[in-house]
């Protein structure tokens, strides 16, 4: 699986066409020779998709950015991955991710991958797709309520990790035995969430861009429907849900800006009262700084479009026991509106490229008269000859 670029993007190259995961971090210090220290031996290695880990170069190998390495496996054997970061920046990443190397020591780098290592690695990669299909059929036969998303082989072709999603707890002990007997491999089952699944598989979002979780996001914060409410979005699951079926991560991107802007608005639960009657809150526009109210005593009337300052003024008067005469002096229509766009040249007209049909002038009577004159002249010529 690739991003659709034919494996030409940097992420596909990192994973040797094993799918687009989180983009590799740009190591802007990799061409600079800094002072040697303990952190200079720290190396970040990327495997399939978004899986990365940190290793230590105890053998003092001449490792460069982009090298393919044979590193210590998670439990046994060795794995193959690509170097994405070396040195001081790797140490900063360790701190950022809260990795304590004293309690959780880094694994070793064995060697720069040899030709035999690469051949075995590519053989393992070529087995992933057919084995994934077989594994899905076996799950179907066992009638287990789980969805298999991806499989990743270890670089030495001795272990396969199956990633799956499930709503409930699944007893897959018999399944693991079946996988081990059929595939002749060590098998590990790893449950992931819906967002992690979308990050592994990749895709295009409703905005037309690649999914954020599969390109640059490394952490998935909680997203709640209150984020949509703060931004005055419709609580429609089809509109606010992403490819994973969960709430879109992008709902959190502008949430801080909205919450800061909403501090200027009065509480929506408060009613405003004038001599014309009572008005209840309906909606608001954060950008225009306008609040819309519904006049309870006049149901057929249009929504009242009131600026925030006017609403606060009415609320202050009501608090002091004063009741304004009407809403007309406060409505938005009487305030000069800023024109954000002017259609000076008809640029927003969808028919601007259509050819304008010219009005046909009626020339039939003139043509007939000319035709008759020419006919008479021609007949007169023939008689004279």
Short description:
The chain is 29% helix and 19% strand. It contains 10 helices and 12 strands.
Largest sheet: 5 strands, mixed, barrel
Over all CA atoms, what is the radius of gyration? Answer: 35 Å
DSSP helical segment count? 10
**What is the rounded distance between the termini?**
90 Å
Q: Give the overall silhouette.
A: extended
Q: What is the overall pLDDT average? A: 81
| Biggest sheet, spatial arrangement of strands | 1-2-5-3-4
What percentage of amino acids are in beta strands?
Answer: 15-25%
Structural class: alpha+beta
Number of domains: 4
Count of β-strands: 12
The helix content is 25-40%
Low-pLDDT runs: 1-17
Order of helices and strands: HEEEEHEHEEHEHHHHEEEEHH
Quickly list its features:
10 helices, 4-stranded antiparallel sheet, alpha+beta, 5-stranded mixed β-barrel, 29% helix, 385 residues
């Amino acid at each position: 699986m690739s991003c659709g670029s034919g494996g030409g993007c940097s992420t596909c190259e990192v994973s040797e066409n094993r799918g687009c995961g989180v983009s590799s971090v740009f190591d802007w210090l990799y061409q600079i020779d800094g002072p040697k220290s303990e952190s200079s031996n720290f190396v970040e290695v990327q495997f399939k998709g978004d899986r990365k880990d940190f290793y230590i170069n105890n053998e003092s190998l001449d490792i460069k950015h982009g090298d393919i390495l044979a590193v210590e496996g998670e439990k046994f054997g060795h794995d193959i991955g690509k170097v994405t970061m070396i040195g001081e920046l790797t140490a900063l990443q360790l701190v950022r991710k809260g990795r304590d190397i004293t309690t959780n020591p880094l694994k070793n780098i064995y060697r720069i991958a040899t030709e035999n290592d690469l051949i075995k690695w590519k053989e393992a990669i070529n087995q992933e797709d057919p084995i994934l299909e077989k594994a899905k059929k076996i799950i179907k036969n066992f009638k287990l309520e789980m969805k298999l998303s991806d499989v990743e082989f270890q670089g030495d072709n001795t272990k396969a990790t199956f990633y799956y999603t499930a709503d409930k707890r699944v007893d897959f002990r018999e399944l693991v035995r079946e996988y081990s007997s059929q595939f002749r491999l060590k098998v590990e089952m790893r449950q992931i969430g819906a967002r992690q699944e979308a990050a592994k598989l990749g895709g295009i979002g409703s905005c037309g861009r690649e999914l954020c979780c599969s390109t640059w996001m490394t952490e998935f914060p909680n997203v709640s429907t209150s984020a949509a409410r703060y931004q005055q979005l419709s609580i429609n699951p089809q509109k606010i849900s992403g490819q994973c079926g969960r709430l879109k991560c992008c709902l959190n991107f502008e949430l801080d800006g909205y919450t800061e802007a909403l501090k200027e608005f009065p509480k929506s639960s408060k009613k405003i009262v004038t001599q014309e009657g009572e008005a209840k809150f309906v909606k608001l526009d954060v950008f225009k700084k306008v609040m819309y109210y519904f006049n309870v005593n006049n149901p057929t009337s249009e929504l009242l479009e009131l600026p925030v300052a006017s609403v606060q003024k009415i609320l202050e008067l009501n608090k002091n026991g004063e009741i304004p005469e009407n809403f007309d002096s406060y409505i938005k229509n009487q305030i000069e509106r800023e024109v954000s766009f002017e259609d000076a040249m008809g640029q927003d007209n969808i028919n601007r490229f259509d050819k304008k049909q010219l009005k046909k002038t009626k020339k039939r009577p003139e043509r007939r008269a000319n035709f008759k004159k020419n006919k008479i002249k021609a007949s007169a010529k023939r008689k004279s000859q």
